[in-house]
Structure formats: C-alpha cells, structure tokens
C-alpha cells in the first residue's frame, strides 16, 4: 500500500507512532541511529591536509623556498633550515587562522538552522530539523519550511509551495484524507508534504515518513548546493588592493636588489634578501586575518544575541543610517493583557497581568460580576472562540502557545469563567480562516450545542467597522448608523490614545448547513465590541533609540497597529520628534513610489500598514541614499527583508521564510539587539582598519629601511632571517590582537560610514605612509649611528636595527588603536594586545640574548647603553606625529 492510500490507523501502525503522544525520546534516539540524521549530503570539504599545503602555494613563498634550498646546497645550512622553519611556522599559523574562520562559519550555519515543532512524549517541543526521524508527529504553519517528508493527518486551510521539488510556483492546497490512485506524480499527492517545501498558508500536522536522503528532495538532489558565504565588500576591495600591493612590493624589492647590486653587493645575497623582503612585505595573510576578525566579531555578536547569516552584513551594519523596525514584539514586550472592554457605549476595566486567569472586572471604579453583564460576556466569549492559540498550565505557570494578542483574549475570557473546557463543551469549530496581517482579521465558523451556526470575526476595529452593517446596543441588533459609527470610533480613539492595542469582535448568524467562503463570511457582520490591551514597551528600547540617533541612525516604527496606538507608543519611546510625521497604510497606497521618496525622510511612524507596504518603504529610503535595516517575521515580509541592505528577522517569532531571506537574526526579537549589532558591526570594521594600518605601515617601514640603505651604499641593515622573523612575530600576533580590540568610546557618536568608502579613506593612507616612512628612517638612523661608530661590527649594527624596527612597530601598534590619537586610549585595555606585544618583545630578547640562537639569527648581545638609542629611535615614528597633525577633533 502506498502512503497516500493509507487511513490514519494504518499510517500510525506502520510508522509505529501515536498521534496524541508522538514518539518517546528513547524510541526517537533509536530511530535516529537507524536512519541517520535528517540532512541532505553536503558537497565535499577541503581536507585539513589540502588546506595545510595550500598555505605554501603562494608564489613568493615558493620562490623563497627555492632560494633557500639553493642556499642550502651552497652550504648555508643554518640559514636554510631557519628560513624553512619560519616558513613552516608561518604556514601553520595561516592554517589555524583559516581553519578557525571556516569552523566559525560552519557554526553559524548550525545556529541559524531551522527548528521544527514535534510531538515527543506527549509534549510539543522544538528540535533542530536534522533530528527528525520517521514516525515523528510534526506541526507546522504558514511561513515554515517543511522539515521532512510527511503524510498529513490534519490540515487547516493548508497551502504549500512546492516549486523546489516540482517547479510549479503556485501553492497547492493540501488535505489529510486518503485517496486511491496508482501512478500519481509528486504534485498530485495532496495528502503529503515534502521536505524543503514552503507553507504559504494555514497550518497542519503530519507524520514523518521519509528523512534525509530518503526524502523526495534527497532523491533528486544528490548534493546540496552550498550557499557559499559571499565575500564582504571589504574583502573584495582588499583582494583588489592585494594585487596592487604585490606589484608595489615586488617593484620596490627589485629596486632594493638593483640598488644593492649597483652599490657593489653580491647578487646572491641581494637575491635572498630581496625574496625575503618580498615575502615579508606582501601582506598575503591579510585576507585570512580579515576573515578571522570578521568571524570573531560574529561570535561576539552571537553572545549579544544576534546571528549573522550573511557575512557581508557585518560590514553593512556599520553603514546603516535607517532602522525600520516592527513595533509589536520588537519594540514592545509582546506580553499582552486585556485591560479594557467596550460594548454598546459601556466600558469595563479588567485587572490582572500576564496569562494567569487571575483578575476581576470593574465599571466606573466599582467591581462588577461578569455574569451580570451580557455584552461583556459576549465580547469575551467570542474573543476566545475565534482564536487559534492556547494557554498551557504547567506547575502553576501559564505558558502561551501561539499569538500574544490571542493569548490576552483567552486570558480575559478565563477571568470571566470561559475556560477551554466550557468553550469545547458548548461549541464546535466548523471552519477557520486564519489571521493575516494584510486582512488584519481572523474568522471562524462556529456551531453551538443546538446546531445553530454563526461566523465570528475578530480583528482591527477600523477594518471590522467597515465590514459591519449592524451593531449591538443594549443587547439588541440594530443598523450601524452614522451616530453609532461615530460613537464606536470615539471609543476606539480613546482606547488607542492610551497606547492600547485594540481588537474588535463581530459576528453573523448563518444557516445551519452553510459554510461560506472567506469573502462572504467576513461581510455584513454585526459589530459587538472592542477590547483594549496593553503591550508594554521593552525597557531598554528607549535608550537604544536615543543611542542610534546619536550615531546618526534614524529609527522608524512600522506596525499593523492603529495609528493612534502607534503614535502614543512612538512618543513614549522618544522616537517621534515634534515635527515627525506619521503615515498610514491608506496614504501609502495612494502615493507613488516617487512621491513617497519625497516626503519619507520626515516620516517616523508607519501605522496600519500591511507587510506588502514594507517593500515600498525600504525602496523609498534607499532612493534617498540611505542604507536601510528592516525587520520582519512573516512570509509577506520576505521581499522587503531581501530588498533592505540589512534584512533582519526574528529568532523567536520569525518564520523560516523570513529567516532565510534575512542577513541577521535577532535571537531575542529585541530592538536593542539591533543597536548592539550595529555597534559591533562598526567596531569590527574599525578593527580591520586598525590592523590594515598597522600591517601596511610595518611593511612600508621594512621596505624603506632596506631601500634607503642600498641607496646610501650601506651594508644590508637586516639579514633575511631577521626580516622573516619580523614578518612572523611582530606583524602576526599584534595584528590579530588588534582585530579583537575594544571599540573607541565614540564609535556610536560618529556618522554612519559611507558604503563606498575605500580602504584608505579617512586619512588611513596618509597614516600608513607617514608612519611607515618614519619607522624606516628611525631604523636606518639607529643602524647608521652604530655602524658609523664601528664599521667592523656589522652584525652588532644589524642587531640594533632589528631591535629598533621591532620596537618601533610594537609602539606604533598602540597608535593604530585610535582614529584620533594614541593619547585617547588606555594602552592597558586590550589584554590580547598587551600579551602579543610582551611576547613579541620577549621573543626578540631571546633571539638577541640566547646564545644558541645568535648564530641562526645573526645577532649579537646589545649593550645596555645602546638600548637608550633603540628605545628613543623607535618611539619617534609614533610620537612625532601623535597629538599633532592628525589629532583633529571629530
Ligand atoms: P503588528 O504586528 O505590527 O502589531 P499586525 O499586522 O499583527 O500588526 O496586527 C494588525 C492589527 O490586526 C492589530 O492592531 C489588531 O487589531 C489585529 N490583530 C492582530 N492580531 C490578530 C489576531 N490574531 N486576530 C485578529 N486580529 C488581530
Ligand atoms: Mg503581529
């Protein structure tokens, strides 16, 4: 028998599972072992060995190796072995850097992997979709990606888009009934859902029948196309720059060699010096360090509750000039409580907070019994009936499973005695039209115990008022006259201006057998009443909005909520300046894209908008040259999330579709987390600038000292092995430590960076050249002074030059920590940097003073008195320019 032909009993028998309890954890564990994880096979990975050898395929490194081998054959054993050892250590470092970068990118993928709601041991739990096994009972709703192949057992208006599998882009509607048919194609299997397809509407429950490579998707896709983390703009720019730098370094090296030869140095030693210099001066490690810095930053961001899905977002974050954020749940807590009920001109207050059914009703300050107030009862009961959420009590705690707006309605109804049990006993739901934020309402068709049917609709009051022809006053049904409409509107405004979220309830009796479609059901309604609920702002949001403003970032609130409610909350949050404008969905509809762009810069709140509007809003801001971050959670939000420069989705309430479209996920759905992410994004970029500046200035210094010496007909100020040592130790460790530097105090007081900004923008180029030049001059100065004192002791002078170069770089590294001046920063703040600098100094002293290493590195112990010269000379490059030329006030 085929899957689609089975009745529910057969299905459950064959898959050995239970529809109310699901599998036990033990059984699931066993099946996971038997069937393997629910994953499609991935493409090949580079092996560790291959990655290791790839470290040496660099052209200059190969030349150096060849040159070293030659020098080995010529009898320079010590030099040859030392150089090879250094190249080897360099390769190992590069290997670990790339490994680390790769690992953390993989870890990221894990983190943003989809979760599935599955029934285990009788409870609905969320597990990573790769842990699904055959027999698992899973539940899904609009916006979810189906985790495994399923045979459906329950559906509610379910529609699934299966284009990934069938190529058909229109969603197909699904139902759970078995049917007989041989020779059916995938697209006809209406009672099955397939791994990787997308739920576009409704919800359902199914039993897993195929996982991993045994799923329909696994059968057609042997290999998962890896998403491939695209390079960030900076990485691409650096790649370009790298090519230029290679050419420049080679050119200068050639110049050094040529000058040396002309001045009488022998060709062979100049060749070896030249190649070493080229290896040192070409910043081949830069891309790897950039990746490490990015991924370290990304890990810091995870600790601050944001997950980067696309690496380029890390950089773009620092450029953001507008954040368009959802209100409900992102700026507010999404912990709703009904506080007001209005019906037919009367208003009741409800006490209590949260989802506990503890609370009472009052009217004009006096306590009342709900059972004596028919209209109140009706509003509450209908709010609980037209509801797709539930509240679960466990160990005295009340947990919501579903939408907070609906949770608030359930709780309010319970306070009046309408428990789940009461509702289930007295009413039967015939049909459900789920809520969607474009319609802004939800409806059910209900049958009561006497067999009478009616439609209950709840939703945005202004929308329901338009759909209502009648209203209830004093429990009597009457025409919704102008006066009644005005009265209702006034009540709505009173509630909304107190920042309350509002919901209206309406109903309509229908024939006993009737089952009208959506459009018909939601028209000609009878308006019953309004509910007002509080949704307190998240306490940290106000400060976050202020900090964003100081950072040159404008925060825009986008919500489906009522204009007045939205305005009241925006004012509370300090988001709406006195002259700021509020725009509603209707106005958005009427404006053309160009007209919107013209005024959009003055708008701070968009209310009563549908997800479809978001795309128009993002585009308008972008047309005005802004870099826009946009949040969203539903299926319909995906286009806007994709269009935004930084698409942000919600970790808790977000659908898989929204998450997949986004480049950043907020683990806690919190607006303040966006601010932290932007701050981190800015910091990561600044840190990358810091070590680019450090590395390049160091390299400029190294090349120039050699070049000047050759031009002045001096001996080599540094021997090849020393140059390589500097490249390995002094350039390596401190640069990585700069990548972990703390942000400067004012990162969130600067304007957003322009995305077009080049690597050398904001004075970086000048800093590199000026500091590099001075490092070269200082090193040469120290060398010449000692050499002229005693030209016999060349190795001594070279050791002094070596020490000066190293120290000059290690002092300069502290200057690189600030855009302004070295004096602006506490040098003891970054312990990694302190560690890197101290260990570099230590290693330098070892190389100079440890006798067995002296012949290898051609060093001679330096006399105490000469350290004065060395320290003095090496301080010059940093302190000569610090506090002067470039100490601009921001
Ligand atoms: P937002 O999430 O930005 O607050 P929504 O699109 O969720 O906006 O809601 C818009 C309006 O629809 C709300 O102001 C409320 O009146 C109504 N509404 C929200 N949730 C539901 C629901 N589950 N059922 C019926 N109406 C709802
Ligand atoms: Mg909502």
Short recap of the structure:
This protein is 47% helix and 19% strand. It has 32 helices and 28 strands. Helix 8 packs antiparallel against helix 9, helix 10 (286-303) packs antiparallel against helix 25 and helix 25 (671-711) packs antiparallel against helix 29 (794-815).
What does this structure look like?
The chain is α+β, with helices and mostly antiparallel strands and 890 residues long. It has five domains: 1-40 and 113-220, Calcium-transporting ATPase, cytoplasmic transduction domain A; 46-109; 233-298 and 675-884, Calcium-transporting ATPase, transmembrane domain (Up-down Bundle); 318-330 and 536-668, HAD superfamily/HAD-like (Rossmann fold), CATH 3.40.50; 335-532, Calcium-transporting ATPase, cytoplasmic domain N. 47% of the residues lie in helices and 19% in strands. It contains 32 helices and 28 strands. Strands 10, 11, 12, 13, 16, 17, 18, 19, 20, 21 and 22 form an eleven-stranded mixed β-sheet that branches. The chain has an eight-stranded mixed β-sheet with strand order 8-28-27-26-9-23-25-24, sandwiched between helices. Strands 1, 2, 3, 4, 5, 6 and 7 form a seven-stranded antiparallel β-sheet that branches. A hairpin with a 2-residue loop joins β19 (468-473) and β20 (476-479). α21 (593-599) packs across α22 and α28 packs antiparallel against α32 (864-881). The protein is elongated. Residues 223-229 and 885-890 have low confidence and may be disordered. It binds adenosine-5'-diphosphate and magnesium ion. Adenosine-5'-diphosphate binds next to α13, β17, β18 and β21. Adenosine-5'-diphosphate is lined by residues 326-328, 403, 405-406, 435, 437, 440-442, 458-460, 501-503, 559-562. One of its GO terms (cellular component) is plasma membrane. It is a multi-pass membrane protein.
């Amino acid at each position: 028998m085929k899957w689609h032909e089975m009745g529910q009993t057969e299905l459950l028998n064959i898959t050995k599972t239970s529809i109310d309890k699901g599998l036990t954890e033990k059984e699931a564990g066993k099946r996971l072992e038997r069937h393997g994880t629910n994953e499609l096979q991935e493409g090949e990975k580079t092996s560790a060995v291959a990655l290791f050898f790839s470290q040496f395929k660099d052209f200059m490194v190969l030349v150096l190796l060849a040159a070293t081998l030659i020098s080995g054959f010529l009898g320079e054993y010590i030099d040859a072995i030392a150089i090879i050892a250094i190249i080897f250590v360099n390769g190992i470092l590069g290997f670990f850097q790339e490994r680390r970068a790769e690992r953390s990118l993989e870890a990221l993928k894990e983190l943003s992997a989809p979760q599935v709601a599955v029934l285990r041991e009788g409870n609905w739990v969320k597990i990573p979709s790769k842990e699904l096994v055959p027999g698992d009972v899973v539940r899904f709703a609009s916006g979810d990606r189906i985790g495994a192949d399923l045979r459906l057992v329950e559906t509610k208006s379910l529609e699934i888009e299966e284009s990934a599998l069938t190529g058909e882009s229109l969603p197909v509607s699904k139902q759970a009934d078995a049917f007989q048919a041989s020779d059916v194609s995938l697209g006809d299997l209406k009672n099955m859902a397939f791994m990787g397809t997308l739920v576009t509407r409704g919800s359902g429950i199914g039993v897993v029948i195929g996982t991993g490579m045994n799923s329909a998707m696994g059968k057609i896709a042997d290999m998962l196309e890896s998403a491939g983390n695209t390079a960030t703009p900076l990485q691409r720019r650096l790649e370009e720059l790298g090519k230029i730098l290679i050419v420049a370094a080679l050119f200068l090296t050639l110049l050094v060699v040529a000058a040396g030869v002309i001045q009488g140095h022998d060709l062979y030693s100049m060749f070896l010096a030249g190649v070493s210099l080229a290896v040192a001066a070409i910043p081949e490690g830069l891309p790897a360090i950039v990746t490490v810095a990015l991924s370290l930053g990304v890990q810091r961001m995870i600790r601050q509750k944001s997950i980067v899905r696309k690496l380029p977002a890390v950089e773009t974050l620092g450029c953001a000039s507008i954040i368009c954020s959802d209100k409900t749940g992102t700026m507010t807590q999404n912990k709703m409580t009904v506080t007001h009920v209005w019906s037919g001109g009367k208003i009741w207050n409800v006490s209590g907070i949260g989802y506990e059914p503890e609370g009472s009703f009052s009217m004009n300050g006096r306590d009342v019994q709900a059972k004596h107030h028919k209209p109140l009862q009706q509003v509450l009961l209908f709010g609980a009936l037209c509801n797709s959420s539930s509240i679960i009590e466990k160990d005295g705690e009340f947990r919501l499973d579903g939408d907070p707006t609906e949770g608030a309605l359930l709780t309010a109804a319970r306070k009046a005695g309408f428990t789940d049990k009461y509702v289930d006993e007295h009413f039967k739901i015939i049909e459900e039209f789920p809520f969607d934020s474009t319609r802004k309402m939800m409806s059910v068709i209900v049958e009561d115990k006497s067999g009478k049917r009616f439609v209950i609709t709840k939703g945005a009051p202004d929308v329901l008022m338009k759909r209502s022809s009648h209203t209830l006053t004093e429990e009597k049904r009457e025409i919704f006259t102008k006066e009644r409409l005005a009265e209702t509107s006034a009540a709505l405004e009173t509630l909304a201006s107190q920042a309350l979220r509002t919901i209206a309830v309406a109903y309509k009796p229908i024939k006993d057998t009737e089952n009208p479609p959506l459009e018909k059901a939601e028209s000609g309604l009878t308006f019953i009443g309004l509910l007002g609920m509080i949704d307190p702002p998240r306490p940290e949001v106000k400060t976050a909005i202020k900090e964003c403003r100081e950072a040159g970032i404008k925060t825009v609130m986008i919500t489906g909520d009522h204009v007045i409610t939205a305005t009241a909350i925006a004012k509370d949050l300090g988001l709406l300046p006195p002259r700021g404008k509020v725009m509603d969905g209707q106005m958005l509809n009427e404006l053309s894209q160009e007209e919107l762009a013209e005024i959009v810069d003055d708008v701070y709140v968009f209310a009563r908008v549908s997800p479809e509007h978001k795309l128009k809003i993002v585009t308008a801001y972008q047309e005005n040259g802004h870099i826009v971050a946009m949040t969203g959670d539903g299926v319909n939000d995906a286009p806007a999330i994709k269009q935004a420069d930084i698409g942000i989705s919600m970790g808790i309430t977000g659908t898989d579709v929204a998450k997949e479209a986004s480049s950043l996920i907020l683990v806690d759905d919190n607006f303040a987390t966006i601010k932290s992410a932007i701050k981190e994004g800015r910091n990561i970029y600044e840190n990358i600038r810091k070590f680019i500046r450090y590395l390049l200035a160091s390299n400029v210094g190294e090349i120039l000292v050699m070049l000047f010496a050759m031009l002045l007909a001096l001996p080599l100020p540094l021997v090849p092995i020393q140059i390589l040592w500097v490249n390995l130790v002094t350039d390596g460790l401190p640069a990585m430590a700069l990548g972990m530097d703390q942000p400067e105090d004012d990162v969130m007081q600067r304007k957003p960076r322009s995305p077009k900004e080049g690597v050398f923008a904001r004075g970086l180029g000048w800093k590199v050249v000026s500091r590099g030049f001075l490092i070269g001059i200082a090193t040469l100065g120290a060398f010449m002074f000692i050499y002229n004192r005693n030209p016999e002791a060349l190795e001594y002078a070279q050791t002094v030059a070596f020490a000066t170069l190293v120290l000059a770089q290690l002092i300069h590294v502290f200057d690189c920590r600030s855009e302004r001046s070295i004096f602006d920063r506490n040098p003891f703040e970054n312990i990694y940097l302190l560690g890197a600098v101290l260990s570099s100094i230590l290693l330098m002293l070892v190389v100079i003073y440890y006798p067995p290493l002296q012949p290898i590195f051609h060093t001679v112990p330096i006399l105490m008195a000469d350290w004065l010269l060395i320290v003095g000379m090496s301080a010059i490059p940093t302190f000569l320019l610090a506090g002067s030329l470039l100490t601009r006030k921001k």
